[in-house]
Amino acid sequence: MEIVISSYCRIKNNALIVNGKSIQLAKQDSAAFFLAETYKILGLNYPKFHKMDGLCKLGLLATEAALQNSGFLERHTLDKIGILMANKASSLETDRVHQQSISDKEKYLPSPSVFVYTLPNIVIGEIAIKHKITGENAFFVEPSFNTNLMLQQNNLMLKQSEVSAVISGWVDFDNGHMDALIYLTEIADDSIKKLNFKPLNEELLKQLYQ
Amino acid sequence: MDVLIEKLKVQIIEQLNLAEVKPEDINPDSPLFGDGLGLDSIDALELIVLLEKHYAIKIQNPADGKKIFESVRTMAEFIKSQGKS
After folding, report:
1. How far A191 CA lies from chain B's nearest CA (Å)?
2. How far is B54 from chain A (nearest CA, A)?
3. Complex ipTM above 0.90?
4. Span A128-137, mean pLDDT?
5. Which residue of B has its CA nearest to A51?
6. How does strand A3-12 pair with strand A198-199?
7. Which class is domain A3-209?
């Protein structure tokens, strides 16, 4: 069974790269500004985005950028799409905000909308909710982008579960530092083979993550 | 009452991160949930936090929430009834 990558998005050092093309942003002085600008550039109209934490915003935007004009969602039914993600910092950025809100017993006022983001796999949920994707999903916390693990899990999902495609990637957000690589993987049946996508392998993943 | 309603609109936008909504977009009599602002269950909890944070009001009976959070006006009326406006 051949598996290919049909589209990808890389976000690193406040730069947005989609399928090798760098998309210029007006000004890139903070993560919040970068995320807001990217939201506008991608032409999204999704009010729920503004309620998300940084990790979810980053994951959602990288996924949207990879999905746009890819034909991915048209080639697969929503229950046959899986989501596989990993990162290093888990949900630490939001965990800190929540911790701060409960550390002072006199001003103990935790926010429910902050608390709901104190799990890293919520980013998968946000993407699934936006696109009504119901396939299998998994999230791993790793010290760094582990191409071997990602490849293994990606193959496992495609070969042993019911899905025919997986939205995969690394989404890390910590102290305003963003590092994301989202790539769309698909089983190359005859119709997909005609599209000449690159085969998924460790070397390609390392190259895209650079 | 009108002053309190306008203040509440600003506080709701801030508390719920309704970045694309302006105070003038909110009809004080429109439902907050469902067709109106389209708020969800987490937003409902945030509204409870808003009352506690800005008006020192704790909702004792969660069943009262449905009535209190029907619209911005019902929220304002509730705050006033608690003598906290």
Report:
1. 41
2. 11
3. no
4. 97
5. B17
6. antiparallel
7. alpha beta
